[in-house]
Amino acid sequence: MSNIYWEAFKTFFKIGMFTLGGGYAMIPLIEEEVVNKHQWASKEEMLDLIAIAQSCPGIFAVNISIFIGYKLRKTHGAIATAFGTTLPSLLIILAIAIFFHQFEDNKVIAAMFKGIRPAVVALIAVPTFNMARRAQLNWFTIWIPIVSALAIWLLGVSPIWIIIIAGIGGYAYGKLGIRN
Fold first, then answer.
1. pTM, full prediction
2. 8 A C-beta contact, residue 76 and residue 4
3. Per-residue pLDDT for the chain (180 aa), expressed as one digit of tens each?
């Protein structure tokens, strides 16, 4: 029998080490490891954990790792998963800080970072579409994320107002018992 703390640390260290693009880009790997491989959470729980992690202040990937670690083994599990998630970034940033001055004008390195950008966009888009599907969006509700994204992008509306309006709308939707 393996040590759950070590297993959780290794799992989140791997997620932190091999995911570029931040927390949202980590969602497919987190889901693969947590839901499919280790079965530490169901798909429905994972969707709830993602929603909670998004709404909490702080770094998304750390938030979700803490929630999963806490679910596994309370505070000690949360510490193991949070440390596993953050240690790779700490080591990478430390290495970059030590050696960056040697590479800051290197055109090959600049081109590599430019080439990574489209992959990061795809890594963020895929979990977004998967979450939308699991959230059971339909023709009655699909306009909400579209209008929200356009309001933020084109009109410069603060995402905080979108969240507040969506919360009020969701509350009213539930209270009025509106069904499609």
1. 0.61
2. no
3. 469 999 999 999 999 888 766 777 788 889 999 999 999 999 999 989 988 988 888 888 899 999 999 999 999 999 999 999 999 988 988 888 888 777 777 888 878 878 887 877 777 777 777 777 777 777 777 788 888 888 888 888 888 888 888 888 878 877 887 655
Alpha carbons 129 and 110: distance in angstroms, whole number: 30
